[in-house]
Design the sequence.
C-alpha cells in the first residue's frame, strides 16, 4: 500500500528546475521509497552497500561513470568525498536539471557536504514521518489516539500487521548501532539510550541541559554533543522562543520535542490507544503531536522558520506562528471538553504582546469540530490544522 506524501509535488518541481535535489530526514521516514516511486526511470544505487560506499569515497570519478545521471544516490553521507565530484559533474552541464537525487538520514554529515560543495546547486527537502493529514488520506478510519501511539512511520501503515512495540524496539536498536556510532563518539550506547529516554520524559518542556546531564549522569559537554546528535539524526526538534523588544523576562531556553509521537510513546511505555488517556504524560504527548502537525503545515506553506513558543514570567503559550503580518497563538490541550478557562494563557499573551499584534488564538484539542470560545478565541480540532 502506497501512502502519498504532501511534498511529492515539490520534489517533482525541484527535479525539473534544479541540478540536484537532496532529500533528508530520519531513518525509515520513506525517503528512498518516495524517490524511487516518483522517479522510477532513474538509476538507483545505495551507499548502504559497503562496496559502493568505498568506491564512491575512494574512486568517485569511477563511481559516477558506473552510475551516470539521472541517478538516485541513497545514504550519500557515507561518501563525503563524492560531493566535490558531484559539484564538478553538475557544473559541466549546469543547464540540465534533475540529474542527481540524493538521500541521507544523517543530516549533519549530509548537510556539511552540501554546504561545502553543492551550495546553490541543490534544493534541500526534509521528509518527516507521516502527518495526521497523510494518515487520514490513506486510512480515513484510523482513530486519532491510535495514530498518536502508532506514530508516523509509513511502514506501520503500509503493513498494519506490524507490531509497533517490536518495530520501535528494532528501530531504536538500529538507530543506536548505525547513526549514533557514526555521528558521535559514544562510549556507552546504553548511556545514550538512557539519555534519549530522559529526553522523551522532557518532550514539550523547556530544555534544561544541566538538569538533563545530571539526571543521566554525564558531563554537560557530553549532553550538548548528544543533543546535537539527536537533532542531526531527526529524532528531536528544538523550538525557539518568540520575543520582541516589548517583552520582558523572556526565557531564552528552547523547548524540546521528540520528532515523532510513536517513538515518544514507545520510550514512555505507552503501548496502546487505550493506555494513552491514563498516561501521566498524555498532555505532553498531545502537545508533541500538535507541534508535528503545525510544522508540517508550515512546511507545506513554505514558511519554515516562523514557528515559536511564547513565555513571559510564569505564563506560556505553546505555539506562536509569526507570519510577518501578525501572530497566531495556539494552545494544545488534552481535552474533549474545552472551556473558556483553557484560553487563559492566550488572553495573557494577547495582552502582553498587544491586541493589534495578535491575529488569532486557538485551543487545539480533541473535539470533532471547532467552535468559538469567549474573548474571540476558538477551540479547534487537530484536523483544522491541515
Sequence:
Amino acid at each position: 500500500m502506497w501512502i502519498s506524501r504532501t511534498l511529492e509535488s515539490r520534489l517533482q518541481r525541484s527535479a525539473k528546475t534544479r541540478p540536484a535535489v537532496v532529500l533528508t530526514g530520519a531513518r525509515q521516514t520513506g525517503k528512498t521509497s518516495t524517490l524511487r516511486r516518483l522517479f522510477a526511470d532513474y538509476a538507483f544505487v545505495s551507499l548502504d552497500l559497503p562496496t559502493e560506499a568505498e568506491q564512491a569515497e575512494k574512486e568517485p570519478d569511477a563511481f559516477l561513470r558506473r552510475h551516470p545521471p539521472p541517478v538516485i544516490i541513497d545514504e550519500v553521507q557515507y561518501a563525503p568525498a563524492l560531493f566535490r565530484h558531484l559539484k564538478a559533474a553538475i557544473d559541466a552541464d549546469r543547464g540540465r536539471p534533475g540529474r542527481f537525487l540524493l538521500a541521507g538520514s544523517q543530516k549533519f554529515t549530509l548537510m556539511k557536504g552540501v554546504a561545502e560543495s553543492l551550495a546553490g546547486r541543490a534544493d534541500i527537502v526534509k521528509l518527516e514521518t507521516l502527518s495526521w493529514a497523510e494518515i487520514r488520506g490513506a486510512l480515513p478510519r484510523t482513530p486519532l489516539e491510535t495514530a498518536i501511539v502508532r506514530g508516523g512511520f509509513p511502514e506501520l501503515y503500509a503493513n498494519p500487521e506490524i507490531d509497533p512495540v517490536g518495530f520501535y524496539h528494532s528501530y531504536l536498536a538500529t538507530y543506536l548501532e548505525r547513526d549514533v556510532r557514526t555521528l558521535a563518539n559514544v562510549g556507552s550506547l546504553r548511556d545514550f539510550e538512557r539519555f534519549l529516554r530522559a529526553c522523551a520524559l522532557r518532550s514539550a518542556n523547556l530544555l534544561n541541559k544541566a538538569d538533563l546531564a545530571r539526571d543521566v549522569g554525564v558531563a554537560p559537554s557530553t549532553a550538548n554533543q548528544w543533543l546535537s546528535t539527536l537533532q542531526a539524526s531527526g529524532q528531536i526538534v528544538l523550538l525557539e522562543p518568540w520575543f520582541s523588544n516589548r517583552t520582558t523576562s523572556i526565557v531564552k531556553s528552547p523547548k524540546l520535542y521528540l520528532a515523532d509521537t510513536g517513538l515518544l510513546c514507545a520510550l514512555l511505555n505507552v503501548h496502546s490507544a487505550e493506555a494513552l488517556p491514563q498516561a501521566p504524560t498524555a498532555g505532553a504527548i498531545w502537545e508533541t503531536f500538535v507541534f508535528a502537525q503545525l510544522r508540517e503545515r508550515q512546511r507545506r506553506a513554505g514558511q519554515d522558520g516562523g514557528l515559536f513558543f511564547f513565555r513571559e514570567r510564569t505564563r506560556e503559550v505553546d505555539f506562536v506562528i509569526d507570519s510577518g503580518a501578525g501572530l497566531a497563538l495556539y494552545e494544545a490541550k488534552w481535552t474533549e471538553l474545552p472551556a473558556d478557562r483553557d484560553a487563559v494563557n492566550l488572553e495573557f499573551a494577547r495582552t502582553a504582546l498587544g491586541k493589534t499584534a495578535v491575529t488569532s488564538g486557538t485551543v487545539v484539542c480533541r473535539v470533532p469540530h471547532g467552535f468559538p470560545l469567549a474573548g474571540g478565541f476558538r477551540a479547534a480540532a487537530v484536523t483544522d490544522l491541515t
Notes: The first helix runs from residue 8 to 17. The mean pLDDT is 92. The CA atoms of residues 67 and 321 lie 44 Å apart.
